[in-house]
């Protein structure tokens, strides 16, 4: 007698805007406004051009290690557009697009990646700084969501992580707690198919990441991570549920990392060229442009004028970043603990004796 059976679950990828630029299915009214389309498209391009500039700064020795978000701009842009100002955003390191929409200046983002923690200072007062340790932010977000729930505040917490992060204990533990306590939390996985050089198939045997929600008893959905419209639709629904006491949602946004993991990586050593070429065809900006061309008569001149204006904006932010005073290395001791533990106090004293402030 065979008692065991394989679970087969169907999690179709939700899509509204096809790679050919066709909008189909039920597009919510809020997403049918041309004004929103233009603002979102502009922000996607701001993110892409900023990203290119950041990589160039690193390559010329003017920035520390930097994590590009090339090809994944739609996820973070849709997050920035769907969060309300008093929601709490708990980002990870590929969330430049949303951070900008939450009020963090480009010069502050560059300051952070330039190795100065003060770059995290000028962000929305509700939000947390970008998290580098993998998956730890999901536990922080569950903690913040617990506080909001206890205080009966109608705000949502949204956190992001990578596909690799979803294989870590912190991810499962936080999601489990969110399910039990019915927390006002939205967890968005940027499934870009890679955890540095480890492909998705080598770090999890699950067919989808969305189904990881099942064991935690929370809602989940799989969405095309290159489709700004589908992302907005699922984010709006999940955030509304969170704000109205209806619990947690896990969103798996399926995309592809069209860049090295960070500037300290070389993807050509492990990724096959063909799958990258294929992914290039479905990236988020091209399909959005096709839509604008078809529906709003968007043309080359408008595109060029927009890019020139964005590059000027980025240029002045880069100048501001380059004129900042150097980071104070002693800062690394000061902002983790309210009271510095004895061993770190000793290290700080030694450091100051050797290097001064
Ligand atoms: C706790 C922890 N372990 C290891 C690392 C090193 N590390 C940095 S990025 C990364 C892979 C993350 O992949 P994924 O979660 O898919 O996110 P992506 O970088 O693809 O957006 C690892 C292992 C880390 N930052 N933190
Ligand atoms: Mg990844």
Name given to the CATH homologous superfamily of the largest domain: Thiamin diphosphate (ThDP)-binding fold, Pyr/PP domains
User: What portion of residues belong to β-strands?
Assistant: 5-15%
Q: What ranges have pLDDT less than 50 throughout 5 or more consecutive residues? A: none
Number of strands: 8
CATH architecture of the largest domain: 3-Layer(aba) Sandwich
Name every ligand kind in the structure.
thiamine diphosphate, magnesium ion
Helix/strand structural class: alpha/beta
Oligomer description: single chain
Largest sheet, spatial ordering of strands? 1-7-8-4-3-2
The residue fraction in helices comes out at 40-55%
Report the span from N to C terminus.
Answer: 73 Å
Q: How many helices does DSSP assign?
A: 12
CATH-assigned fold name of the largest domain? Rossmann fold
Q: Sum up the overall morphology in one term.
A: globular
Task: Tell me the number of structural domains.
Answer: 2
CATH domain class of the largest domain: Alpha Beta
Rg calculated over all Cα atoms: 21 Å
Task: Describe the structure in brief.
The protein has twelve helices and eight strands. With 357 residues, the chain is of the alpha/beta class. The strands form two sheets. Strands 1-7-8-4-3-2 form a six-stranded parallel β-sheet, sandwiched between helices. A two-stranded antiparallel sheet has the order 5-6.
Task: Describe the protein.
With 357 residues, the protein is of the alpha/beta class. It folds into two domains: 13-326, Rossmann fold, CATH 3.40.50; 329-357, no CATH class. The chain has helices at 34-59, 73-82, 96-101, 106-113, 136-150, 169-181, 200-203, 228-243, 273-280, 284-296, 300-322, 342-355, and strands at residues 13-14, 88-90, 157-162, 185-191, 194-195, 198-199, 219-224, 249-254. Helix 6 links the parallel strand 3 and strand 4 (185-191). Helix 1 (34-59) crosses helix 2 and helix 5 runs parallel beside helix 6 (169-181). The radius of gyration is 21 Å and the shape is globular. Bound molecules: thiamine diphosphate and magnesium ion. The site of magnesium ion has 6 residues, from strand 5.
């Amino acid at each position: 007698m065979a008692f065991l059976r394989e679970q087969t679950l169907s999690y179709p990828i939700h899509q509204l805007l096809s790679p050919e630029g066709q909008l189909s299915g039920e597009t919510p009214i809020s997403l049918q406004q041309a004004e929103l389309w233009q603002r979102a498209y502009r922000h996607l391009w701001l993110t892409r051009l900023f990203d290119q500039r950041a990589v160039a700064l690193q390559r010329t020795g003017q920035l520390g290690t930097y994590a590009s978000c090339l090809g994944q701009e739609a996820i973070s842009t849709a997050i920035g557009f769907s969060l309300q100002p008093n929601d709490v955003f708990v980002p990870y390191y590929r969330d430049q697009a949303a951070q900008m929409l939450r009020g963090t200046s480009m010069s502050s983002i560059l300051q952070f990646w330039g190795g100065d923690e003060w770059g995290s200072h000028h962000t929305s007062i509700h939000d947390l700084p970008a998290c580098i340790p993998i998956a730890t932010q999901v536990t922080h977000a569950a903690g913040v969501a617990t506080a909001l729930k206890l205080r009966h505040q109608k705000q949502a917490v949204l956190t992001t992580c990578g596909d690799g992060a979803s294989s870590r204990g912190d991810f499962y533990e936080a999601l489990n707690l969110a399910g039990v306590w019915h927390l006002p939390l939205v967890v968005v996985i940027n499934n870009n198919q890679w955890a540095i050089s480890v492909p998705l198939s080598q770090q999890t045997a699950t067919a989808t990441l969305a189904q990881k929600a099942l064991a935690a008893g929370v809602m989940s959905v799989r969405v095309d991570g290159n489709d700004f419209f589908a992302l907005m639709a699922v984010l709006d629904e999940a955030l509304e549920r969170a704000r109205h006491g209806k619990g947690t949602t896990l969103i798996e946004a399926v995309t592809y990392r069209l860049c090295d993991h960070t500037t300290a990586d070389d993807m050509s050593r492990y990724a096959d060229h063909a799958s990258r070429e294929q992914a290039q065809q479905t990236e988020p900006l091209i399909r959005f442009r096709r839509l604008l061309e078809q529906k709003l008569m968007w043309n080359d001149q408008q595109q060029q004028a927009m890019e020139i204006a964005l590059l000027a904006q980025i240029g002045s932010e880069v100048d501001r970043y380059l004129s900042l005073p150097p980071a104070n290395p002693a800062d690394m001791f000061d902002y983790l603990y309210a009271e510095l533990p004895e061993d770190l106090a000793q290290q700080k004293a030694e450091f100051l004796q050797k290097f001064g402030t």
